[in-house]
Design brief:
The protein is mainly β. The chain contains no helices and eleven strands.
């Protein structure tokens, strides 16, 4: 069956950086992978998506230029590097895979989700 595990979250100050990791266990991570976040009381929103070969990425407008998705096939891992973090970036961050032949920032196409990692940006 396999599962995804996110790590790398934490409490940071505005302007700091973090790198989140999404490790696949029990299956080969060749899928398109999306990163999502959910703040308390808000709906889950798409942050980025990376293609299976890593050559295509897309980002939400709110993180464009600050977040970078990448992947390492040898480690079966996808990363989300986050720079210049802002308080509004606070939330639980999830990675998810989709078997669809396109990247999407919508929740619906994704069918395998990790448990999430908490990111808190506060001074």
């Amino acid at each position: 069956q396999g599962h995804l595990v996110e790590t790398g979250g934490g409490l940071v100050q505005p302007g700091d950086s973090l790198r989140l990791s999404c490790v696949a266990s029990g299956f080969d991570l060749y899928h398109r992978v999306g990163w999502f976040r959910q703040a308390p009381g808000k709906e889950r929103e798409g942050v980025s998506c990376i293609s299976g070969d890593g050559h295509f990425t897309t980002y939400a407008d709110s993180v464009e230029g600050r977040f970078t998705a990448s992947r390492d096939g040898a480690k079966n891992t996808v990363y989300l590097h986050m720079d210049n973090l802002k308080p509004e970036d606070t939330g639980t961050y999830y990675c998810a895979t989709t078997g669809k032949p396109y990247c999407s920032l919508d929740v619906q196409p994704y069918d395998r989700w990790g448990q999430g990692t908490q990111v808190t940006v506060s001074s």
